[in-house]
Amino acid sequence: MKRLPLWFTITGAILMTMMTVNGAATKSGSITKSSFGKTPDGELVDLYLLKNKNGVEVAITTYGGAVVSLKVPDRNGKLGDVVLGYNSLEGYENDKAYLGAIVGRYANRIAHAQFTLDGKTYALAKNNGENSLHGGIKGFNKKVWTAKAIPGKDDQALELSYISKDGEESFPGNLKVTVTYMLMDSNKLRIEYSATTDKKTVVNLTNHSYFNLAGPGSGDILGHVLMIEADKFTPVDSGLILTGELRDVAGTPFDFRQPTAIGARIDANDEQIKLGGGYDHNFVLRRKMSDPISLAARVTEEASGRVMEVWTTEPGVQFYTGNFLDGSVHGKSGVAYEKRSAFCLETQHFPDSPNQPKFPSVVLNPGEQYHTTTIYKFSVRKMKEVIIHKPASQ
Ligand code: GLA
Questions:
Q1: How many helices (H) and strands (E) does the chain have?
Q2: Ligand 1 and 280: CB distance under 6 A
């Protein structure tokens, strides 16, 4: 290595110090990387910590691109972790609940684990009863992604990429996927999903973070108040496969157009609630296609004052109330993840779209660019408010 002149090294050191000092003064964000272990195949896995100027931080592992922790302030400015996750790589390797992970190539279910493109039928693994769920046996949540840290002035980004080979989990086409997490100084976690293919295929990507705005270990999420910008939802059958109907939410426990406690109707005597074991349904977002991005949902947790808004370019959102969590899985700091201790708002195209010609298309052709954006925006409600959550019809 060529040695630098002494004056250059010293000037460099001072400059670095000034930058650090300035950085501290202006509280700029940062990105740090640490090791998260090694897979049994010998692949190295990292953990990236992105911090913004307010101290908000998100930890993301290259294993499954999973959000491991997300610390946001409560109404008193106290940071708290609002997502479920594991302390170790082993937790993610054994995970069956998709905690925090990137889900693909096809998020949610494909009926009978098969679909047809241009007359050719693709048979997928049946990993959920008769159906395919979340990309198959080894979906994108079980892959090690290649990471690139991109520090910025107002945002800290982590670009994750993965190439899903033609035939992987029986899907056609080499799919090049990039998922970029951006932690903004405005306390938004922005996720950009991009993909291209060399053969006609289907794509539906999402993130499967489980949220509890009061912090994991603080009980269930039944008191969280939710608003979803949807006039319709997609009913399911006993295998949680969409029937194809778009049903009005009006007069049903699926009407979240006015802010309503998640628990207010979760045990209602309603066929769809029973089939889902609670909420496990896709909502048809009101989204105006002329808007670049639209509000999908807002969740408020009164005790902490934390508010989370979900914005997306996607037509649907899966609202899932952790009905399959049963306390057998222990996450960070040994906390048992009980049924309904967290909720998911998975932005997406509708489940089983490859078999539902009337739904918005999930087909990606060579030469086309798949690109979607979802933003989780955090803020606080200063004063405690009483929220009315009993719709007249219930
Ligand atoms: C999605 C599905 C649920 C369940 C979870 C993962 O939200 O809709 O039925 O499979 O993923 O446990």
A1: 3, 27
A2: yes
Q: What is the pTM of this model?
A: 0.91
Alpha carbon 389 to its chain's center: 26
pLDDT at 387: 53
Which segments within 94-187 are labelled E, that is strand? 102-103, 109-110, 114-117, 120-123, 132-133, 146-151, 155-164, 175-184
Q: Which two tokens stand for residue 196?
A: 């291209």
Both tokens of residue 136? 């198959």
Ligand 1 center from residue 336 Cα (angstroms): 18
Structure tokens given for 8: 């250059």
**Atom from ligand 1 closest to the CA of residue 344:** 7
Residue 346 annotated among the catalytic residues of the structure: yes
What's the CA-to-centroid distance between 171 and ligand 1, angstroms? 20
pLDDT digits (tens, 9 = 90+) for 192-232: 999 999 999 999 999 999 999 998 678 999 999 999 999 99
Amino acid at 392: A
- The whole-number pLDDT of residue 91 equals 97
Q: Can you tell me the distance from the alpha carbon of 199 to that of 253, in angstroms, rounded to the nearest whole number? A: 42
In this structure, the number of other CB atoms found within 10 A of the CB of residue 296 comes to: 27
Q: How far is CA 182 from CA 15, 154, 266, 350, in A?
A: 27, 10, 33, 25
Q: Whose CA is nearest to atom 2 of ligand 1?
A: 108
| Torsional class of 142: left (φ above 0), alpha (ψ -120 to 50), beta (otherwise) | alpha
Nearest to 322 by CA among 244, 376, 266: 266
